[in-house]
Structure formats: C-alpha cells, structure tokens
Design a protein that fits this description.
The chain is α+β, with helices and mostly antiparallel strands. The chain has 11 helices and 26 strands.
Length: about 500
C-alpha cells in the first residue's frame, strides 16, 4: 500500500519540519501574560506570530485556539489593537450567539425525560444530530429521523452521532473496537478506578458500558470534549463541554469543579488521564493545558506524595515523540499501534499489516504495559518493554530502535539506526531518502541557525536573542532567491 505510506510520509515531513499545514504561524505562550487574551466563542484566544522566511514579523495577533480554519472561527485581533466599546459589545453578542442552544441543565432534563419514554417515542434527528422529545417532532418532521432508540443505543452515542471529521477543528477519529478494548482492559489491569477522558468519547463510552455490564470493573469516567452533541447523552458529572487548547470549560465554574472533584477524589489516587487530541493541533498549548490538569490533580495530593506524577496516556503519532518528550521528559512512547474506525490511513491493514502511526505516550513504566502477542508484539528483556515483532534490538544502540514498526538498520556513520528506506548521503553527512535534494536551500532553525532542525524543535529555547543572528545567517545562505510562503488557514 504505497499511497498511504507516501501520504503519511508527507505529514511526517511537515511535522518534523515544524510546519504543520505549512501555515508559517507559531503560537506564543507568554509565561506571564500582561493582559488577558480576548475571547472568541471557544474561550480565550491564543497569541500567534507569523514567521515568514527571513522576515521577522513583530506584530503578533490573537486567533482562535480550537479552530485552525477561519471558516470555523474567524476571530482575529492584533495584539496591540484597541477595540471600540461598540465592537467589543458586538463581539460579546456574537460569542453568546455561538454558544449551544441548550444549556447543560436543559440537556440533562431532556435526557431524564427521554429515558422515561417508551421505546417507540424515543427518536433521534440525524440532520440536527439531536435526541427528540415528542414536542420536537413537528419541527423535525421533514428531517431524517431514526425511531426506537434503545437504551443500548443511548449508551453508545459515538455510534449514533456521525464523526465530525473536519480536519482543522474536530478531527474526530474514533478508536477501532480492538484498540478501544485493549485500552479499557489495560486501564483495568493497571488498577485504575477513574479515567479522565480528554477528547476520547468512544473510550469514555466503553468504560461506562463495561462498568454497567460487569460489577467487578467499576471504573468511573469523565469526558471532556469540545463536541457539544455529547452533552445530550451524559449527566453533568460525566461530561464537560471543554476546549483542550486553552483549558476552557464552556459551562464555567461548576464544570471546572466537576473536573477538580473527579481528579482529587481519594486524594487523587487511582486516576489516569487519557487524551487523543486532533493531530493537526499544536503541541505547546496542549502541553500547557495538560500541565494545568496535572496541577489541579496535585492540589489534592498530600505533602508526602509530592514526587508522584499524574498517570497519563497521550495518544499521538510517533513522529511527535521529540516534541512531546520535550514537554514531558518522563514520557516514553509505546510500540502499540492505535487503530481507528473512520480513518483510512490509520486502519489495521487487511493483510494484518499494521500501518497506524499512532502511539501511546505515557509516564507509566513501560515494563508494566503488556502488549498483545497475538497482535504481533513481543517482550524485549534488554529494553524491559514490549515492542513490535519487527522492531529488532540493535546491539550498537542497545535498544529496540524502530519507531514505525518496520525493521530499522544501523548506520555506522550516523551512529544510530535509521529507517529501512534511507541511505547515507555523504554530502549531507547523514542518512536520508535516496531521492532527497541535498543541494536545495536549507532553512535551518530560526533560533540557533543549525540546519538539522526547525525553530519549534530547538532545544535552545532561551536563545531568542540569537534569532536575529540566525535569520541573517539564513538570508545569506539563501541569497535573493527567497520566496515568501503564502499565509494559509487561520493566519
Ligand atoms: N479516538 C478517540 C477520539 C479522538 S478524535 C475516541 O475514539 O474516543 C479527537 C477528539 O477530540 C474528538 O472527540 C473531538 O471532538 C475532540 N476535540 C477536538 N478539538 C477539541 C478541543 N479543542 N477541545 C476538546 N476536545 C476536542
Ligand atoms: Zn474560536
Ligand atoms: Zn530491545
Ligand atoms: Zn542501531
Ligand atoms: Zn544529501
């Protein structure tokens, strides 16, 4: 299957180049923001800076944290822009209008009414993606409506609702049964009693199904997700309408308290956070959010536990490994390949060939995580962890080095293992694809000027003063043939 691999390679190249979606825009996360960020319908916006090649943009701007497509949220404001009272009021009104039509309370009341109805009166409008009470029928009579919604169906909303696949915002890719089962069994075997599901609606629902089926595994789950449709199916203590790019609870303080209580129950013992964010999203704001959730959990810890970490599963493609570990040095990447239902790229191949690039990043010691041998994993006693069968232990690196599930080869010149498709290039002095262009212009890193990475993966983060020098260096390298990248997407 060459096509998916190629497409995947393209995504991977973009990520490694630090230019996802080639927008040329980076998020700025001031540690002590002087002024609070303005609000869009999705909560506080984020500060961005446009980085066009060789040109230092000094004017920064606020844009939506959740939507990377202006079609979904067109908020834009220069950092230094002053807005008139009238415009501020208009914005406030717009933000209000964009909120869901029903309050969280109303949803809960409607659900309580609905489950009391006989089967024949429980309906779901597919067009509006809404559960209907008899009073609503008239309004939806020309829509596609499904009747006889059983309690079982109500317990599996991710099968009733269609996945919101728009890549730039929701990117809702649901776990395949096999992966979801694996996760639930793993969480239960590891002894967790509470799971904070951040953007994992299908995992949330499977945990709850299991808990109601089998009294032995009584794991509780709380779902935080931006997909408001789920609020129709869950009470306040099991769903919060939430934006994981700015840690915003749409239903305010009450919802925040639900989350806090959940994390701090039993003095914070027995809880894990599992998250599967949209891959197109920026890693930095996610890391900031997860650190806030960690801090919330820590508040409930007793003093003598202060060294403990909140257990986390962060599900993300393998090529984000260095980015994630930069923010969470205690995380390691498991070899387990997470499969999805509605994502052609990420499905378990027909031939049994696994192709998913999606992995689990965790701070749980990997030797505690048993991967299924029947799905092609084995235990490496030297690495003390489960790895893919094809992932061979390299005696020179002293580790099982493959990241993508294929067998990697050791390169003695690079002194590391590299992808099987790579060869050593004496001009570049490193391994690369055979058809790479070594003489092409190299952009390198904006911060330190080195060629082997981009600004976003630079370890030299405190070196912003060197930016100017690095940019000059790049300009010299590129001469006058500089092309500016068009500003796509949400700038
Ligand atoms: N594999 C998971 C779903 C992951 S898809 C499962 O099967 O349970 C990404 C999820 O994150 C979706 O449910 C989507 O609605 C949610 N999401 C997308 N953007 C979000 C945001 N800004 N804040 C919170 N959740 C978000
Ligand atoms: Zn927005
Ligand atoms: Zn090994
Ligand atoms: Zn090696
Ligand atoms: Zn080369």
């Amino acid at each position: 299957m060459a096509a998916p691999r190629d497409r995947l390679a393209a995504v991977e190249a973009e990520v490694l180049a630090g230019r996802q979606g080639s927008s040329g825009v980076e998020v700025v996360l001031p540690s002590e923001p002087a002024t609070p960020a303005p609000l869009c319908p999705h909560g506080p916006t984020l500060l961005f800076v446009k980085v066009s090649q060789g040109k230092e943009e000094t004017r920064r701007f606020y844009a939506c944290s959740a939507c990377r497509d202006r079609k979904d949220c067109n908020f834009f404001q220069w950092e230094d822009e002053k807005l008139s009272e009238a415009r501020l009021a208009a914005r406030e009104a717009h933000n209000q209008r964009c909120q869901p039509p029903l309050s969280r309370m109303q949803c809960v009341e409607r659900y309580s009414k609905l489950i009391e109805l006989p089967l024949s009166q429980r309906r779901f409008c597919q067009r509006c993606q809404q559960l209907l009470l008899p009073d609503d029928w008239e309004k939806h009579h020309e829509h596609q409506v499904v009747g006889d919604i059983s309690i079982t169906q109500l317990k599996r909303p991710s099968q009733l609702l269609y996945p919101l696949e728009n890549k730039k915002t929701n990117a809702q890719y649901l776990f395949a049964d096999r992966s979801c089962q694996f996760l639930v069994d793993l969480l239960s075997n590891l002894g967790f009693r509470r799971v904070l599901c951040v953007g994992t609606p299908r995992l949330h629902e499977l945990i709850r199904l299991k808990a109601s089926d089998d009294k032995m595994s009584n794991i509780k789950s709380l779902l935080l997700d931006i997909d408001f449709r789920y609020s129709q199916f869950y009470m306040e203590d099991s769903f919060c309408h939430y934006n994981m790019f700015n840690h915003h609870f749409f239903d305010g303080k009450a919802a925040l308290e639900v989350c806090r209580t959940f994390l701090q129950e039993d003095k914070g013992d027995g809880v894990i956070m599992v998250t599967d964010p949209p891959f197109g999203g920026l890693v930095e704001p996610l890391a900031v959010t997860f650190k806030k959730l960690i801090a919330m959990w820590k508040e409930g810890q007793s003093q003598d536990n202060s060294h403990k970490e909140l257990p986390i599963f962060w599900i993300f493609p393998y090529f984000f490994e260095s980015r994630i570990c930069q923010f969470f040095p205690s995380f390691c990447m498991l070899d387990y390949q997470v499969d999805y239902d509605n994502h052609a790229l990420y499905k378990h191949g027909k031939t049994g060939r696994k192709q998913s690039p999606v992995r689990i990043f965790t701070n749980i010691p990997p030797n505690k995580i048993i991967l299924p041998t029947e799905e092609g994993y084995r235990f490496c006693p030297l690495c003390q962890r489960y790895v893919s069968l094809e992932n061979q232990h390299c005696e020179h690196c002293n580790s099982c080095t493959s990241k993508d599930g294929r067998k990697w080869n050791h390169c003695f010149l690079c002194k590391k293992c590299v992808k099987p498709s790579w060869i050593h290039c004496s001009i570049c002095n490193c391994c690369a694809l055979p058809d790479h262009s070594c003489k092409g212009p190299k952009d390198g890193c904006f911060i330190c000027g080195e060629l082997d990475h981009k600004r976003s993966t630079c370890s030299n983060t405190s070196a912003s003063k060197k930016v100017n020098k690095a940019v000059r260096k790049q300009k010299q390298r590129r001469g006058n043939k500089m092309k500016r990248r068009p500003l796509k997407d949400n700038p």
